[in-house]
Amino acid sequence: MIGFLRGRPLFVDGDQLTLDVQGVGYLLLCSLNSLTDVEGQEEVQLWVHTHVREDAIHLFGFSSTLERQVFLSLIKVNGVGPKMALNILSAAPLSRLVEMIESADTKGLSALPKVGKKTAEQMILSLRGKLVLGEGGAQAEKLKPLAAREEIVSALVNLGFRPHEVEKVVDSMDPSFDLQAGVREGLRSLTQQL
Length: 194
Fold this sequence. Notes:
By secondary structure, the protein is α+β, with helices and mostly antiparallel strands. The chain folds into three domains: 4-62, CATH 2.40.50.140; 65-138, Orthogonal Bundle (DNA polymerase, domain 1), CATH 1.10.150.20; 144-193, Helicase, Ruva Protein, domain 3 (Orthogonal Bundle), CATH 1.10.8. It has helices at 32-38, 65-74, 82-91, 94-102, 106-110, 117-127, 144-158, 163-171, 179-193; strands at 4-13, 16-21, 24-30, 44-52, 57-62. The protein has a five-stranded mixed barrel with strand order 1-2-3-5-4. A hairpin with a 2-residue loop joins β1 and β2 (16-21). The chain is globular. The two termini are 26 Å apart. The relative contact order is 0.09.
């Protein structure tokens, strides 16, 4: 799985960025916020999520780990796919998006592209209280519990455990676990189930 790519932006076509990484061109789908962040730079580093479907493999690129974490949270919401999540991230700054979810602003969320009232309510139900912001505004935003959770899930799935079993075990863990403690606890729990 690709975690990040560092290279030279070649060109942008809509929400697609072609990144030259040592002579290999990677096509990344990016939010407008990420595309704005990389604009005019000679070399950039983008955090990557690989989305695999039966008929396609897509790479999604993000200029910050925070944006990647919010994207991963959004695609877990019932009715929100990766393209829709990218449109949501393009339509509002992260701090505003998190603020609307935390304040249960259904009307504000419904105003985002392709987000109806039902989807807005589902986003609030699924994500409220799970997106933790740090101090200092948008530049210092952090989602530590969520970040560790995603990394723990990824590590355990990469070790060969079934995703639905891993999700169940990780959801029952102490949310303050860092990556190492979470993987250790996950291995302990998952191997006991065998």
